[in-house]
């Protein structure tokens, strides 16, 4: 199949993973796609420097999504993409992280294919990989973890899901979009058998200015998120590998502060 990056190909859409934030983590292929764009339909957290890679005359359209506040519903985004492709434009659908990891890229590919239009997907460095690397947190490790799982923390029916086996000895769990439900996530994991003293890290604004890597124990996850005023975007990592990271130990810091106040 001929690549959609062929300069003579018109009326096409390219789903591009923009990575976790730092423009330096864009792939070479992602940069080439942006430079070929007539229209860039982008998420809200894309670094402005990434958008500047597209030609100055390219039409930039934000379809930013926040918790309970969407610029456009997903069906409208799909229709927008299809309309511009049918008009003969090269449309880059620019998504944070990787399009196929909690990015709803699969739904957009389905919509474009259903319209009978050509589509290509360019993967990106996922938030889990980028943020973990920055914090020197190996998601797998020969001595500590031989499996890693990815889950969404804002999914429907959280309490009804069975998370047993996803985290524990020798396994790492990465939770996307979990800051707002951190208390419920910790309760759910402990109810499904994860030890309360399992190490957990919160990686906030990874690879971006103001990033933080914080760690504590699972039982303290919700309280720590509150104490430290952690805000999205952030991912949560649960597992023994957290102890290998550069994340700042906020449980120890909090305990020392409390002891000093009480002393």
TrEMBL record:
Broad enzyme group: transferase
One Pfam match: TP_methylase
Pathway: Cofactor biosynthesis; adenosylcobalamin biosynthesis; precorrin-2 from uroporphyrinogen III: step 1/1; Porphyrin-containing compound metabolism; siroheme biosynthesis; precorrin-2 from uroporphyrinogen III: step 1/1
Entry EC no(s): 2.1.1.107
UniProt cross-references to InterPro entries, sorted A to Z: 4pyrrol_Mease, 4pyrrol_Methylase_sf, 4pyrrole_Mease_sub1, 4pyrrole_Mease_sub2, CobA/CysG_C, Siro_Cobalamin_biosynth, Uropor_MeTrfase_CS
Residue stretches making up the Tetrapyrrole methylase domain: 12-221
Superkingdom per UniProt: Bacteria
GO MF terms, alphabetically ordered: uroporphyrin-III C-methyltransferase activity
Keywords: Cobalamin biosynthesis, Methyltransferase, Porphyrin biosynthesis, S-adenosyl-L-methionine, Transferase
Similarity remark: Belongs to the precorrin methyltransferase family.
Descriptive protein name: uroporphyrinogen-III C-methyltransferase
Gene behind this protein: cysG_2
